Amino acid sequence: MASFWWIKAVLWHKKMTTLPSLLNTYLEAITPALTKPFLDAPLMAIDLEMTGLDPIHDQVISIGLVPIINGVIPLDKAQHMMISISGSVGQSATVHGIVDNQLHMALTLAEAIDWFLSKTKGYILVAHHAPLDIQFIQQQLIRCFGQSIPLVFIDTLAIEKKRCLMQQPVLKEGSLRLNASRTRYRLPVYSAHNALIDALSCAELLLAQVSAMGDIKKLSVKDLINVSR
After folding, report:
1. Domains and CATH numbers, the chain
2. What SMART domains is this protein classified in (predicted)?
């Protein structure tokens, strides 16, 4: 996890630049969450489905959001949105199962980003292998606003890697994948696969991870967070 003061410095430095009002408001809203106890911190598990793994050239086609409030997952507040893209989903459909005709009535990228910012404002983002999702989100911000902002996040994969390396020096290939990580905490493996289910899986994994750390009431969110540049 990154130094808390380094995270604050990154956010402060960006606030000193000229930002579109929507991005400036989003950046300001995250500050109160940074020093909260874990159980009090507003968290939002996210997952993206994309046409590929290159944030510059590939496109986001769906986003799943699952909040964690006071250490509880309110399923009635979970949301999933499809996003229209330029061109075809191509061979990526074999991974996420989304085909072109499902995106005909989907949100535009601008609508999707507006929705994402409104739903996650004030929340610390949570994802499994978070840097990939964060890079894609930041690239979408650049496409919509011409610039991006730092995003504060918790990476459940990084947490799991650290925990596993404390027990064994070499990790097996694939041992840090989402389902493999869930299995170590005796969490069920969901047969369905989409951005919403994966966001839920990530949220459940985080709660299991922090529970295994010991007294969750003494855990501060600043011990887990990182920030993108």
Report:
1. 4-227 (3.30.420.10)
2. EXOIII (SM00479)
